[in-house]
Design goal:
The protein is mostly helical. It has helices at 3-6, 10-22, 27-37, 53-81, 87-108, 112-136. The two termini are 27 Å apart.
Length: 137
């Protein structure tokens, strides 16, 4: 891909869609943990304490993904609406997605330092999109 192709503002919309779908990546591990302990349809939230530790961390990563997605989606939409067509905006959007996947992986693996590092990287990518959008407005 050339730098001009990375400057396509539509990448921001694709990034929102991919980031939204990625929210459910950690939940795959929650589902597997629920399968291991036996799924209780009568009280699905009550079984949280019975989940293996990795599945509990995956649930927390899943919840955190919802929280960070809202800011990212707003930032990417601001950049898209004001017509940001910079390769740097596309890189920021892609960086957010990669950072959030790595955040989830390190959260599930219980490696707090890297989990925190990629949380910050994702936050900085979101901030960059807001800055690009405000500069273009």
């Amino acid at each position: 891909m050339t730098a001009l192709e990375w400057a396509d503002p539509a990448i921001l919309l694709y990034a929102i869609a991919v980031a939204g779908a990625s929210i459910y990546f950690p939940y795959l591990f929650v589902a597997y943990g629920r399968f291991q302990v036996g799924y209780d349809l009568a009280a699905p939230r009550a079984m949280f304490d019975k989940l293996p530790p990795y599945a509990q961390r995956a649930a927390w990563a899943h919840q955190n993904a919802f929280e960070s997605f809202m800011l990212f989606a707003a930032a990417a939409l601001v950049a898209y609406v004001v017509g940001v067509s910079s390769p740097w905006a596309s890189v920021a959007a892609a960086t957010f997605i990669v950072a959030r996947w790595l955040h989830a992986v390190f959260y599930i693996l219980n490696i707090a330092l890297f989990r925190s590092l990629f949380f910050v990287v994702g936050g900085l990518a979101t901030l960059a999109l807001f800055v690009f959008g405000l500069q273009a407005a």
